[in-house]
Specification:
The protein is of the alpha/beta class. About 3% of the residues have low confidence.
């Protein structure tokens, strides 16, 4: 009788494979490798972030696709280190620039575009090259999202306690929920996938809007978040952005979550300066206050704010509703919602999503 893996064994196997994924590009040979995160931009400029690593070589035979290989690659991931002061070149359809990695191996590329990108596609491929001392070239590809011409709106969403239940800042908790809990014990809030799909395509089904996600978690969970989005059928966009939690003398603590989020939203408002925005967050942290401040600083740019209610504190609800009344004069509405259906009904009334999109949210599994 064939052996059937236990659910916990299958979950552990999947977790190991996801954690080992960033190590696969070197094919076990080690040395310099480039890990690039999804980029974003406009027809004027693009932005790409990532990190250059030095990785250990696999000393013993470890065939790809085996459990042993994944264990070895996870171990190698724990021991790799950032490669500082490495020159790296980005090329996007003939547009080129070169930067140098920082002391921890990170690079943050801003590339003004002198040559237009193909206007009929949203995702573009960039090439990252490092020329080694022995004249070998280390290459990597990066996906870059450029909104199509017909886009009419940008959506920026928090992740933790907004898209998924608490856990982004707690890596162990998040990975346990994602890989080890049963299917009915949902990681994503009910209706989130359907709501974000409806927002992505818009009222006419043709918009392909930018969906940009912000997290207070560290970059080291990037691959796990990718797995989360794919498993829950949530539209994938650049995950804007995670924070670097590494301790340095220059920055002994990570930047405050609210400052991190506000700065990124301001950057997106300046990048997509001709588009209105929808902001989505939760009531548990500082999202309402941060978003209301953005509305006051950029009047007329924020169309709607959705705040998922994640606590039962009546005084907190009153504070958020008061913020909503304050920003009405700036042309923005704020909805404190207990569930995704309430957000979808409001979005439909605002002509942000279609009737079919609203119906999909209403019919989404409750997760109970």
């Amino acid at each position: 009788m064939p052996h059937t893996p236990r659910p916990i064994s299958k979950a552990l196997r999947k977790l190991l494979h996801v954690l080992a994924r960033p190590m696969k590009s070197d094919k076990g040979h080690g040395g310099i490798v480039v890990n690039a995160y999804r980029g974003y931009g406009s027809q004027r400029e693009v932005f790409v972030m990532g990190r250059v690593f030095r990785q250990l070589r696999i000393g013993l035979p470890a065939p790809e696709g085996t459990l042993y290989r994944d264990i070895v690659d996870v171990f190698r991931r724990m021991l790799r280190w950032g490669a500082k002061h490495v020159e790296i070149t980005l090329d996007v359809e003939g547009n080129r620039t070169q930067v140098t990695t920082d002391r921890d191996g990170y690079f943050d590329i801003h590339l003004p575009l002198s040559k237009s990108l193909a206007p009929d596609q949203s995702w573009h491929t960039g090439t990252l090259d490092i020329v080694m001392r022995d004249e070998r070239t280390v290459c990597a590809k990066v996906d870059i999202y450029i909104p199509p011409a017909e886009v009419d709106l940008v959506v920026i969403s928090d992740i933790d306690d907004t898209v998924m239940y608490t856990g982004v800042a707690n890596k162990l908790k998040m990975m346990y929920r994602l890989f080890f809990r049963k299917a009915h014990q949902r990681v994503a809030f009910p209706g989130v996938a359907e709501l974000y799909q409806a927002l992505f395509v818009g009222a006419d089904g043709q918009r392909r809007r930018p969906l940009l996600y912000v997290s207070r978690g560290p970059w080291s969970i990037y691959e796990v978040l990718e797995e989360f989005f794919q498993r829950n059928n949530i539209p994938i966009g650049p995950i804007l952005f995670l924070r670097e939690w590494g301790l340095t003398l220059q920055r002994p603590l990570p930047r405050k979550s609210e400052d991190h989020k506000a700065n990124l939203i301001q950057q997106m408002l300046e990048l997509y300066d001709d588009l209105p925005f929808v902001l989505i967050g939760d009531s548990g942290q500082h999202d309402p206050e941060t978003y209301a401040r953005i509305v006051r600083e950029y009047p007329g740019r924020i169309k709607t704010i959705y705040i998922r209610s994640v606590n039962q504190d009546a005084s907190r609800h009153e504070e958020i509703e008061a913020l909503g009344r304050e920003i009405i004069d700036a042309g923005c509405s704020l909805l404190l919602a207990a569930d995704s259906v309430s957000m979808a009904e409001h979005a439909f009334d605002q002509e942000l999503i279609s009737a079919a999109g609203l119906q999909a949210v209403r019919q989404a599994p409750s997760g109970n």
